Amino acid sequence: MAKIQKKGKKGAAANFVTRNQALKKLQISLADFRRLCILKGIYPREPRNKKKANKGSTAPTTFYYHKDIQYLLHEPVLHKFREYKAFAKKLAKVMAKGQYSTAKSLEEHNKPVYSLDHIVKERYPTFVDAVRDLDDALSMLFLFATMPVTDKINREVVEDCQRLTAEFQIYVMKSRSLRKVFFSIKGIYYQAEIKGQTVTWLVPYQFAQTIPTDVDFRVMLTFLEFYRTLVGFINFRLFSEVNLIYPPKLDLIKYEGAAGFNALILEAMHKTAPDAEAKLDTEMIEAEKEESPEDVARKAASKERLKTLGNKVAELQGSTDTDRIDEDVQDETEETAFDEFKATAPTNAAVDGDDNMVTLSQIQAASTEIQQLQNLFSRSVIFLSRETPRYALEFIIRSFGGQVSWDETVGTDAPFPENDEKITHQVCDRPTQGHRFLNRTYIQPQWVADSINSRKLVISDNYAPGRMLPPHLSPFVEAKEGDYVPSTGLEEEDETFEGETEDINPDDIEVQDDEEVDSADEEDEEEEEAKAAVAPKKVVKEDHEAELQAEAAGVAFTEYAEKKPANAKKAPKSAAGKKRTAKEIEEEEAKELASIMMSNKQKKLYTKIKYSQNKKSEEAAKLEQRKQNIAKAKTNANKRSKK
Amino acid sequence: MRERRATTGFKVAGIATGKSNGAKSSRKEPIKSVNPKQTATKPKKRAAPAQEESDDDLEDFGNVEIDINSDEEDEEIDENDAEESDNEVEEFPEDQSEGEEEDVAADENEDEDEDDDYMAGDSLDEEDWNEEAKISQRPTKLPEIEANYDSDSSTEDVENTVGNVPMEWYDDFPHIGYDIDGKRVLRPAKGDELEKFLSTMDDPDSWRSVSVDKEGKDMVLNDEELDIIRRIQGGDIPDADYNPYEPTVEWFSSKKEVMPLSAAPEPKRRFIPSKWEAKKVMKIVRAIRTGRIVPRKPATEKPRFYNLWGDEDEPREDHIMHIPAPKMKLPEHDESYNPPEEYLPTEQEIKEWKDLDPEDRPKNYLPTKYNSLRQVPAYGRFIQERFERCLDLYLAPRVRKNRLNIDPDSLIPKLPSPKDLQPFPTQQSISYEGHTGRIRCFSLDPVGLYMISGSDDQTVRLWEISTGRCLNTWTFDGVIHSIAWNPNRELCLFAVSVGHGNVTLITPPRIGSPEQISLTDEYIQQGYAAMSTAGSDDKEARNPIPWVKPNAADQEKLGYRVHLSHTQAVKQITWHRKGDYFATVAPDAKNLAVLIHQITKYQTQAPFRKLKGLVQRVMFHPTKPLFFVATQLYVRVYNLMKQELIKTLQSGVKWISSLDVHPGGDNVIVGSYDKRLCWFDLDLSARPYKTLRYHSQAIRQVTFHRRYPLFASASDDGSIQIFHGMVYNDLLQNPLIVPVKILRGHQVVNSLGVLDIEFHPTQPWIVSSGADHSLRLWT
């Protein structure tokens, strides 16, 4: 006979522990446990059967995976927490006695310090894993980089965040891995592609953050502690991958002059002459420091030297380094493209399949597309007016190979002044300009983002200062079947271009309208209908565009759908509900009949799916309807103004 | 005297340091008395009990206080101390400050007493009495205690010897314990509550009396005891005289005493530096010189970041319990600072959004349009949202959810196309107009030419099916509940149930062929003959209900043949296939609910002596002598020949409304008021082979076609559902059920839709009657 199973030894009962059980087992306070959970990335679970996991009780409880807690038992950080507690007691005792010197030495020698390195490695065994989880870390760091220093938030923390984010942005610029940019009401979303992983982060607009009272900063700071470590290690790796020395040195003068990324001095790993010298020099200085720590004057001098040296290096790099590194990147990409071709060619020869040919061409097309995107602004020299968000735009433009400069008032170290001849674009964000240079295009910041998202330089006329901007759409939305697709800026652009030629027709009609001012609206509509009917014959276009035209002409959607039987199927049910073909009715009925034979479970699932589908399509229809209304209102307004 | 006392004190101190606790405690008191200040402040009587105790404890050292200087005692003490003490004994009194000299006189007095106390102990002598008298004169008093250990103050009292046991053990006894002789100590008489109250009123000391369980009576507390209680309540030390803040006596101080405690010369080691320390220091010095130790070396700073990941790192294996955190949701179009205008919410939507709880909002922002990037303000909830994300990451339980990404149409089962399963009725062809009430029942003649229908307008109409012409009308004085045409093609007869239990057999005039008429007449006559031959008693016994011959006029004119009057309303009439028997159901008639009538014998039988449940429908088996009885929950199958129950079909529905048996006899369909239709395969199981739920209202009637593989159900939702229900001869193959058509046309009146349906006996047609007074033919 098999051994009788004891209750609670296997399955859910053994797999999960409640939070209180975990606390008891680890013998730590709840606050410490939370910190550990955050650092170690331990999260509660939802057992499939709560009753089984909780000894028959159904009371609401938090469950943790038993092994997670088991691993926590021998976590070094946990021991450090305990040591720290003991240390704090000692320190308090000494302080209470007034033995300040003892306290100082205690603080110096006995303070337990813990590092999170092993946790980073443990949570992300490979570099790619770490990059995959970078989203939250970056958003958090970018937030804290803009935080004011308070009693809860240290200056060191904020500065560290600023530094880490700047370093990361430098990598993105160097590797040109930025892919998408989106100006939202919450902040600016960026998406980069690093090691084949898409990394998305959100940066708040450059305003002073108001500290809310309902936020527990202990939790956020614990997260931040881990994220700082993580991003630091990632930055190190990323820098070494583009042959840069990490950490880059900070040029204090430039930093104080708000030079942004330029305040960080980049040094290539393979030492060129100036770099090597610089390194040597710094080492010497350091050695000097060590030898004569009491010599303050000398120290100051060395510091000064270091600063000036940094400037020199920066200058040197400013002229040569960036270009050189950019070239490197380009070379690399070219090389990789070539390699790919080589690698795939023999397999092609062996297999001789059409599919492979297709994939090869696809790969090539994709790689060239990305290369084009990376060099999107390579021929643009862009100047940022002082009212534009300088750091964001500088980062964006430089990530796509553009040269960028800014007004002296927003930061020192601008590469070229406003009146430079080579400037092709000037980004400005006010309706009028004082002095306009004729040889450059004035655009609003949205042009930059829209160009990137559409992967080509969009026509800048729509983005001229003071003009009503075309809608800025999210590049992260992938339209699925049945979803509502708003008209992008690009489409409208095309439309406007076509519109210029087409404009003649409606104008003519409107002129006729003007002649018979009293003519009833119905006639008007009829005419437009006629026009809409003629339109498809003239130009073969995609349905959508045709629809748009019809809309512009003021034809009701249902009427339009009737006229175009091809569109009948696409039309939402609600719109086409009145008149259905016999075949459709039959199909409908067949479905209804067949649904009788579904099992209960299937029926429920079916209704659920249908419900969500209907909801979605209703939403889309609502948007569509609104759009039509807006278009109608606009045309009416136009007419009225013309009359 | 003084000298002696001082010696005593010191000696005892010496002992106290070297001795066990017992000795310590016992001898501390004398030390206190030694200090002149203390003795000055300290009242005498406090020492008394302590002395008594010490006397008791130190029985072995009975001589201590007397021979305190003796060598025996010294031997017990540490040798060092003994020596030193001997030296200091003489000197000690001089240690007292001059200012205290005044006290000395008084002290002496007291000391005398004290010493007397010490001497005492063997017996009560005069001095003791004097002592007591003195004590009583002093301002603060403790309870009087005789210092002698054999002074037994309790001799006069009966002492309870039960010991420390809970006194409630004696609650049920008249006594409260036993005295020293083992005799019962009886419980003192206790008055009732009133007496107690009065006694408390009378007794001025009642407020300070406490009941003592052991003695069973009250004890009056004296002032000292009350004082102790008050102090305990106040959180003070119970002893009023105890001073917790006595000045410390610095025995070992930096002051050079004239009479030092120890006269030992200062040892040499106090004057020379430590050799071992020097060695230790030298070790460090040497280490520093050789460079092994660098003083004040700044901690070597390790680089904060390094290459953490190697190239040969192996990714973590996927584990089922590892659930990576879901990524943040990517922004949609409406989050743009400049969204397309159709995304902007209307005023009403904004209001709705604001009225919702922040947790319930579908999106945590309101789409807003700004004309330029410059105008976009800071997002107020940025930090909160980040914080919420943090909370989600470490507090939200993660669970893997499988999202079904399937086409809903793939869930619909693939069925043979209805077109391949034709013929079946698809549309309405004829409507039979005439009735003015809801048509509860109708029946088609076995050939399929005529139809009779009974309605709530108390008429029965005869229709020609193919033309829709009303051939005849009978008017009754009650609602027509049920109507059924005799299935025998050779007869022309139908039964109709009217009002409160009247069932009439009618031969419609001018319809049947002469052969049919004559044969029907023969049938009826046969019955009369049988009835008349039987004895009257016999008849009574045989027929639970009377068979009555209608009058000649009615016979001639309306075609009435026989009247049967039931006790309750007959809700259903169903014929046996041969046309000789028919069964009636009157659900309220208790044991006569189901009756089987035989025409040829004019005989009525009640086959069931007792019926379980309310009978809804009955049915004859088409080929075998089986009888189906449908109650609310079950369908029971009886063999009429053997008179036994064969099977009980458990439908699983709540209230069966209708029943039909497949012409093959092996399959049964049951409709229910809870919208379900059950198909039973009698060979398969007593539970339904298939239960279908598709009507939105109660099912009123189900029926099989006699020839075609069709069955149908009618419901209160006004629709008729036609199914293709193929039964195969092969026992291994399950019946095929395919819905083929939904016929809609009947109006729903007072939440009643289609009330009855019946297939045409030969054609694939169906007739339906409804609450909307219509009778329709669907072809």
UniProtKB/TrEMBL annotation, chain A:
Residues 374-455 form the BRCT domain. InterPro entries: BRCT_dom, BRCT_dom_sf, PES. Residues 615-627 have a biased composition (Basic and acidic residues). It holds the Pfam family Pescadillo_N. Residues 490-545, 560-585, 612-643 are annotated as: Disordered. It comes from the Eukaryota. It is found in: Nucleus, Nucleolus; Nucleus, Nucleoplasm. GO terms for biological process: maturation of 5.8S rRNA from tricistronic rRNA transcript (SSU-rRNA, 5.8S rRNA, LSU-rRNA); maturation of LSU-rRNA from tricistronic rRNA transcript (SSU-rRNA, 5.8S rRNA, LSU-rRNA). CDD domains: BRCT_pescadillo_like (cd17709). SMART domains: BRCT. Residues 490-529 have a biased composition (Acidic residues). Residues 566-581 have a biased composition (Basic residues). GO terms for cellular component: nucleoplasm; PeBoW complex; preribosome, large subunit precursor. Keywords: Nucleus, Ribosome biogenesis, rRNA processing. GO terms for molecular function: ribonucleoprotein complex binding; RNA binding. Component of the NOP7 complex, which is required for maturation of the 25S and 5.8S ribosomal RNAs and formation of the 60S ribosome. Component of the NOP7 complex, composed of ERB1, NOP7 and YTM1. Within the NOP7 complex ERB1 appears to interact directly with NOP7 and YTM1. The NOP7 complex also associates with the 66S pre-ribosome. Belongs to the pescadillo family. This is Pescadillo homolog. It comes from Umbelopsis ramanniana AG. The lineage of its organism: Eukaryota, Fungi, Fungi incertae sedis, Mucoromycota, Mucoromycotina.
TrEMBL record, chain B:
Residues 1-159 are annotated as: Disordered. SMART domains: BOP1NT (SM01035), WD40 (SM00320). Belongs to the WD repeat BOP1/ERB1 family. Component of the NOP7 complex, composed of ERB1, NOP7 and YTM1. Within the NOP7 complex ERB1 appears to interact directly with NOP7 and YTM1. The NOP7 complex also associates with the 66S pre-ribosome. GO terms for molecular function: ribonucleoprotein complex binding. WD repeats lie at residues 432-473, 692-723, 754-779. The keyword Mitochondrion does not apply. Residues 170-425 form the BOP1 N-terminal domain. Pfam families: BOP1NT, WD40. It comes from Umbelopsis ramanniana AG. The lineage of its organism: Eukaryota, Fungi, Fungi incertae sedis, Mucoromycota, Mucoromycotina. GO terms for biological process: maturation of 5.8S rRNA from tricistronic rRNA transcript (SSU-rRNA, 5.8S rRNA, LSU-rRNA); maturation of LSU-rRNA from tricistronic rRNA transcript (SSU-rRNA, 5.8S rRNA, LSU-rRNA). InterPro entries: BOP1/Erb1, BOP1_N_dom, WD40/YVTN_repeat-like_dom_sf, WD40_repeat_CS, WD40_repeat_dom_sf, WD40_rpt. HAMAP family: BOP1 (MF_03027). This is Ribosome biogenesis protein ERB1.
